[in-house]
Amino acid sequence: MEVFFLLISIVLFSGSKAFPVDDDDSDIIIVDSVLENSIDGDDSIIDVSSLGPEAFGIPKNESGDNVAEWTESSLMNPEEMGGYAEGDILMPKFARNGIRERTVRWENGIIPYAIDKAGYNRDQQDMIMKAIADYHRLTCLRFVPYSGQTDYIIIKNTNTGCWSSVGRTGGRQEVNLQAPGCVSKKGTILHELLHAIGFLHEQSRPERDDFVYIQYSNIKPGAENNFKKADTKRTSDFGVSYDYNSVMHYSEYAFSKNSQKTIVPKIKDMKLGQREGLSRGDVKKVNNMYNCKKEEPTSGWVGQVWQSFFGTKT
Ligand SMILES: [Zn+2]
């Protein structure tokens, strides 16, 4: 529907001299690029305009230096230590198109991937494979080894922190998981892959102020931008209510300047920022985004662990 309106507005815009015509027609090119990439119409489009222009850039060693200092006892998660949009979102700049405010889903939920194995030891490679196995067990997504597909992700270890772009941007796209910080916990890997799959952060949801207090006085100067909310008209919750357990939720101390909490849940004693595994809500959202009917496990040892972790399915 959105593309339809954009097309209409382009027709109106280009057909009328009453509007000032800007030589920089990047808006129009953005729409073209969406159409080129779009496989199954409007449904596949992911709007990333809420991230703002700072999401588009290049990897930075400075972010890597911060993540190199992360340990399991750090107050925040390693992906909250980067200098990218919301800490860990980095969209590629396209030579021809400039900034693109929309990406798309992976066609049929198939994500070709490669791992730069030289960058990881055996345990770290295993951790990445465990994260991928979780997606296979719980969702309809299929990560398939790269074999020449046009669009694919490459997981690599450079000294630039933990980061990914959101959705399928087209062509080769990098997911950087700096070792050891970004591959210490399975949840960090699941988190970055969820960005590549098409999701933003949980606390960026338009209704988040109903669920958490943001303590602006504790946020590092200049990092306030990371706490922006997405536009309610442009985002979908995929039928899942606000999820404190989401692997996409920041920790309580994200971007803190003083080791005081920057996010306080409105429910007492609720923990934020877990990076152990996908939450029930995360799984549901992925499956709803990709039109997957898969039921969560209720039997066998996987089902037992799952049900005891999240409570019996209702
Ligand atoms: Zn993130």
Automatic annotation (TrEMBL):
<keyword id="KW-0479">Metal-binding</keyword>
<protein>
    <recommendedName>
        <fullName>Metalloendopeptidase</fullName>
        <ecNumber>3.4.24.-</ecNumber>
    </recommendedName>
</protein>
<feature type="active site">
    <location>
        <position position="192"/>
    </location>
</feature>
<keyword id="KW-0378">Hydrolase</keyword>
<dbReference type="InterPro" id="IPR001506">
    <property type="entry name" value="Peptidase_M12A"/>
</dbReference>
<keyword id="KW-0862">Zinc</keyword>
<keyword id="KW-0645">Protease</keyword>
<feature type="binding site">
    <location>
        <position position="191"/>
    </location>
    <ligand>
        <name>Zn(2+)</name>
    </ligand>
</feature>
<dbReference type="InterPro" id="IPR006026">
    <property type="entry name" value="Peptidase_Metallo"/>
</dbReference>
<keyword id="KW-0325">Glycoprotein</keyword>
<keyword id="KW-0865">Zymogen</keyword>
<dbReference type="Pfam" id="PF01400">
    <property type="entry name" value="Astacin"/>
</dbReference>
<dbReference type="GO" id="GO:0008270">
    <property type="term" value="F:zinc ion binding"/>
</dbReference>
<feature type="signal peptide">
    <location>
        <begin position="1"/>
        <end position="18"/>
    </location>
</feature>
<dbReference type="InterPro" id="IPR034035">
    <property type="entry name" value="Astacin-like_dom"/>
</dbReference>
<keyword id="KW-1015">Disulfide bond</keyword>
<feature type="binding site">
    <location>
        <position position="195"/>
    </location>
    <ligand>
        <name>Zn(2+)</name>
    </ligand>
</feature>
<dbReference type="InterPro" id="IPR024079">
    <property type="entry name" value="MetalloPept_cat_dom_sf"/>
</dbReference>
<feature type="binding site">
    <location>
        <position position="201"/>
    </location>
    <ligand>
        <name>Zn(2+)</name>
    </ligand>
</feature>
<feature type="domain" description="Peptidase M12A">
    <location>
        <begin position="97"/>
        <end position="293"/>
    </location>
</feature>
<keyword id="KW-0732">Signal</keyword>
<dbReference type="GO" id="GO:0004222">
    <property type="term" value="F:metalloendopeptidase activity"/>
</dbReference>
<keyword id="KW-0482">Metalloprotease</keyword>
<dbReference type="GO" id="GO:0006508">
    <property type="term" value="P:proteolysis"/>
</dbReference>
